[in-house]
Amino acid sequence: MSIKVIMCGLGAMGSGMARMIAEKQGIDIVAAIDASTEKKGKSLKDVLGINKYSEVIIRDDFENTIMNTEADVVLLAIDSFLEKVYPYIEFILKSKKNCITIAEEMAYPYTINQEISDKMNDIAKENDVTLLGTGVNPGFVLDTLVVVLSAACRKIEKIKAVRINDLSPFGTTVMKTQGVGLSEKEFYEGLEDGSIVGHIGFKQSIPLVAKALGITIDDIEELREPIISKTYRKTPYAEVKPGMVAGCRHIAYGKYKGEVLITMEHPQQVLPELENIKTGDYIEILGDPKLSLSILPETPGGIGTIALAVNMIPQVISASAGLKTMIDLPLPHGIENSFEDQVHYYNCQGVK
Amino acid sequence: MSIKVIMCGLGAMGSGMARMIAEKQGIDIVAAIDASTEKKGKSLKDVLGINKYSEVIIRDDFENTIMNTEADVVLLAIDSFLEKVYPYIEFILKSKKNCITIAEEMAYPYTINQEISDKMNDIAKENDVTLLGTGVNPGFVLDTLVVVLSAACRKIEKIKAVRINDLSPFGTTVMKTQGVGLSEKEFYEGLEDGSIVGHIGFKQSIPLVAKALGITIDDIEELREPIISKTYRKTPYAEVKPGMVAGCRHIAYGKYKGEVLITMEHPQQVLPELENIKTGDYIEILGDPKLSLSILPETPGGIGTIALAVNMIPQVISASAGLKTMIDLPLPHGIENSFEDQVHYYNCQGVK
């Protein structure tokens, strides 16, 4: 029997997941939920052009749909923050359905709210289902890949991981949260009033890496500064004149007793190549041996997040009950055969 | 209680594992076995300079030592080939001890001998223990890393993975099996008579990747050719004049109905930088998206194998019973805290 999925949230990410699933074998979308009034009542064929799902009608009644639809897993793509997604997650778990969310804070929610995290773990266990937060970052580039690379090390002293990307494909919301096009003064005001957030994920990636590797961290310090452009940069959603802000250089330090053990940098700007900056993912482990990994250009953010969420479905369905992170499950990977066969494989292997 | 390890085989790899373990917490070597008459009766302090283990006396009576020593896991580093290690593995499993081996063929033994593989799986299950084959390659660079990278892909069409290394640190045995210093004619004679083997691992890495990703392969074709040197190359164990063989370019193709889906290349030679060849690990996934990863210089072979074998101990001890591969266990990673705490973590998480 095919894996049954409920899509919850049909923004850019949720829509992408639905399109990806439509191309895959042994997996089907059985229901779709979105809060927008324009989508309500239309089919996935009408809204996303997925012919296969002409009979999946988009609904806005979250509770009824979750409760009354038989499904193996709910893909939740509605928000970045733990407290925003928590009520939805609670309901999904209590309806005895596994849940994968791309809410960034859910990649490792313990640093955000230990109490809610413990509660989610308890509810998942009581209902014998599994909960995972994943995505490209947090969830993959600055944590999973760092963790896996370290397997070839006898000793790890320090870690530096950098992700340099290009915000050009993104729309106005992202431009605003990264301060693109602002003056330096406006950027700092935006930091102050919370409208500029930079990257959401360091509080997840750093503890994930530290926990997996057994590195003790007692402080995570974050630094956000404007990337002042020397050149004129223009995208469909942003214009940056020389001297104005091209994006946000967000850096985080995982420290122990004042010493920096893990450094993560994620400068996000439009068109970095105009100033000869190569986009890419860079991981350096200082240890024995020293290892330097790069992915050039960088793992694409949107596609990567979509792929991670969908590709982790078999591991999540097969896992033991509870709140999991990427370090608790078997290797993530792309899937070209049937999702059902993947679940069957993990079950036969006794993999949890 | 600390994890108890029996070291079996104290060549370069086994000795390296013993030294690594001596530096780690929550893990101890409780016995050491080696067939060499020179080492017999001496302590790990005498032979390897590990002061901590002055009371671990090296023995050559494998069966007695395995049977009469209480231990959680045996690290087996004695040979590359399934049929050579199988009798040892069988005995270890029947003594109800987990086993990690760096025998290359054990990274995925099914392509070598399905019957023995099934038997090992059965014996492991009957005795409630776990068996894993790992190492830097096969086990990590050309399989685990490829598998993990693919998680960011919606679709995978073809894969190419290349590992370019420098054989200079190795001794005469490796020089001979790679044909270093021979004439082209002697190289082909060596291939013919089996004295030149190239890389052992493609028959493991290709099926591991294919299986994880659900890519069907019906043939693995291997090609070995001499790397003819244009320059004079000299190492402590080899001399290569221009026109002679600097090493073996070993290539393997994973095919389906004649079409190559997975290509793996591992040219092994001494001092490739003399001809401006950069050593490194290179993975390219052609799909959606296309991803290009490199590790420069390459993940070191010896240290990497030592690290992988030791770092996988917690996952193996916590795993469900049976013959496992790297795609069945939680993320591999380096360990800076206590090995015992790592096992405790996996047990608490219900990870198998």
Would you mind describing this structure in some detail?
The structure is a homodimer of 352-residue chains. Chain A has 352 residues and is of the alpha/beta class. Chain A has 2 domains: 180 residues, Rossmann fold (3-Layer(aba) Sandwich); 155 residues, no CATH class. In chain A, 32% of the residues lie in helices and 27% in strands. The first copy, chain A, has 12 helices and 15 strands. In chain A, the strands form 3 sheets. In chain A, strands 3-2-1-4-5-6-15 form a 7-stranded parallel β-sheet, with helices on both faces. A 6-stranded mixed β-sheet of chain A has the order 8-11-12-7-13-14. In chain A, strand 11 and strand 12 form a beta hairpin. In chain A, helix 1 packs across helix 10 and helix 4 packs parallel to helix 5. The longest helix of chain A has 13 residues. The model of chain A has no long low-confidence stretch (mean pLDDT 97). Strand 14 of chain A pairs antiparallel with strand 14 of chain B, so a sheet runs across the interface.
